[in-house]
Write a structure and sequence with these properties.
By secondary structure, chain A is an all-beta fold. In chain A, about 0% of the residues lie in helices and about 50% in strands. Chain A is globular, with a radius of gyration of 13 Å. Chain B is mostly beta strands. The chains are: A mainly beta, B mainly beta.
Chain lengths: ~110, ~110
């Protein structure tokens, strides 16, 4: 069974600070997605990483896929209240298996 | 281009009733996935369908749950004789082809009383 562990589970920081959240697995994934989910809504896709060592930037968000494609990180620079939400990593599709395996989530709160 | 549509957004059923959840994928998407998010738990895969075919139902409970994606119309997730433990948010996602990103709908929140 493929598992994705995210850390920290909860994070509360002041506006303007930087933060990093992690997504780790013992399994190799062919690709990994990051989603953000707001209360009462569905997950919204932020980025997909597919190559080991890949780094993608989305404004103040930087996503990295580990060299071995088993882990990923999300770094947010100068956090803003609008960044508040549940951040989910999801592994897959994986080598012909179309289902996504979701991480446990990081609930981020940015305090104005 | 409209996103993934789900209805109803909220559904209340008494124990023993049937629940029908509908999902219309994004235009041009022929692959549909259903996930369930139990309270305080992560999203779990249930079933993957293409038009008129169930491809992978490994995450679906063996009893009371069924899914379809007919040639015409939305995908339907059907739960018969609902129990309190079925209370959850059910999300549908779609993708245009194999091995590509999945885009999620807003979910249906099922409450069983």
């Amino acid at each position: 069974t493929q598992l994705l562990e995210q850390s920290p589970q909860f994070l509360s920081i002041q506006e303007g600070e930087n933060l990093t959240v992690y997504c780790n697995s013992s399994s190799v994934f062919s690709s990994l997605q990051w989603y953000r989910q707001e209360p009462g809504e569905g997950p919204v896709l932020l980025v997909t990483v597919v190559t080991g060592g890949e780094v993608k930037k989305l404004k103040r968000l930087t996503f990295q896929f580990g060299d071995a494609r088993k882990d990923s990180s999300l770094h947010i620079t100068a956090a803003q209240p609008g960044d508040t939400g549940l951040y989910l990593c999801a592994g897959g599709p994986n080598f012909g298996n179309e289902k996504l395996t979701f991480g446990t989530g990081t609930r981020l709160t940015i305090i104005p | 281009n409209a996103g993934v549509m789900q209805n109803p957004r909220h559904l209340v059923r008494r124990r023993g009733q049937e629940a029908r959840l509908r999902c219309s994928p994004m235009k041009g998407h022929s692959h549909v996935y259903w996930y369930r998010q139990l309270p305080e738990e992560g999203l779990k895969f249930m079933v993957y369908l293409q038009k008129e075919n169930i491809i992978d139902e490994s995450g679906m409970p063996k009893e009371r749950f069924s899914a379809e994606f007919p040639k015409e119309g939305p995908s339907i997730l059907r739960i018969q004789q609902v129990v309190r433990g079925d209370s959850a948010a059910y999300f549908c996602a779609s993708s245009p082809r194999l091995g590509t990103e999945q885009y999620f709908g807003p979910g249906t929140r099922l409450t069983v009383t």
